[in-house]
Design goal:
Chain lengths: ~160, ~140
């Protein structure tokens, strides 16, 4: 028999190691790890939405890059939100940025020669490019219909970033 | 008076910089792309993001030829050409630009060391691919 005691201090947060050895205790530990991971992922996604809000603010004025970039169109921020919401949980959270032509960008960067970049245009077109080492690369264009196209998911997964 | 001083300064600066720059941009010449947006480089990873190399609305990427210039002289250009100071610059060899199929043309009307990267394809995904390759081949220098 095993019991999880909830004292006035919640025990799992006071220990870094599970000292229980019963199967139930191991199961609880596994469940707890899942919950922590879930919240960590949620926090990461929240960070992306925060970045999106920041880039929308930066792009609200023309010439935000010093090279004559146009002002961000209003609908692209909503599309950006929808894109982030559509990302499957197996995909790590991207960095959100702005392209000089007014597209919102989502990028996954492992190193200088392992990167995937997706640009979302106000017309709902997803242009993507990725490099995976010195010779391997991929690029293409897909329509965004509230689901992330498979070639983009495959390109990001190819980077091998741990979620 | 101010106009006269400006003309004088412009002539002097032009003369000082013009001395060792060839009329056409050569393959071994390093190019600096000044960055004014903090979102276009990642200091912790030491990466110039591809957005920094994407062309402006006229289809050109403005760069400066930095052959034989000291870091102070390079920052001097980046800090003078805009009202705000450059946050960073990406350094890439002309050969690396030519290798991906783009061209580098001198554009001395604005500055004796000014040049532009041209020949960008119309399709966005192909532009991203070329800019990614330039990002891969460039080094990041951040203003301290």
């Amino acid at each position: 028999m095993s019991a999880l005691t909830l004292g006035w201090v919640y025990q799992p947060f006071t220990r870094s190691v599970n000292t229980g050895s019963s199967p139930e205790s191991k199961k609880l530990e596994e469940r707890f790890r899942e919950i922590v991971l879930h919240f960590r992922k949620r926090a990461e996604r929240e960070r992306a939405f925060y970045e999106l809000a920041r880039v929308v603010e930066v792009g609200s004025e023309s010439n935000w890059d010093g090279y004559g970039a146009p002002k961000l169109e209003k609908q692209v921020s909503q599309l950006g939100c929808r894109f982030l919401n559509a990302l499957p949980s197996v995909i790590p959270t991207p960095e959100v940025g702005l392209d000089p032509d007014g597209d919102i960008s989502f990028s996954w960067t492992l190193s200088r020669d392992k990167q995937v970049h997706v640009s979302l245009s106000p017309q709902g077109l997803l242009s993507y490019a990725g490099i995976f080492g010195p010779t391997s690369r991929v690029h293409g264009t897909e329509a965004f219909d509230d689901s992330v196209p498979l070639p983009i998911i495959e390109a990001v997964r190819r980077l091998g970033i741990q979620v | 008076m101010i106009r006269y001083l400006y003309q004088l300064l412009k002539r002097f600066a032009g003369w000082a910089f013009r001395s060792d720059v060839a009329a056409t941009v050569e393959g071994h010449e390093p190019l600096a792309r000044f960055i004014y947006s903090s979102g276009h480089f990642a200091e912790t990873k030491g990466i110039v993001k591809l957005q920094a190399f994407l062309p402006d609305p006229t289809g050109e990427t403005s760069v400066f030829r930095t052959l034989s210039l000291t870091p102070q002289q390079i920052w001097g250009i980046g800090n003078r050409i805009r009202t705000e100071k450059a946050k960073a610059y990406g350094k890439v060899l002309t050969d690396a630009v030519l290798r991906v199929g783009l061209q580098v043309n001198a554009a001395v009307e604005d500055h004796p060391r000014h040049a532009v990267i041209v020949g960008w394809p119309h399709q966005k995904d192909r532009r991203l691919m070329l800019a990614l390759q330039l990002s891969k081949d460039s080094s990041l220098h951040v203003q301290r």
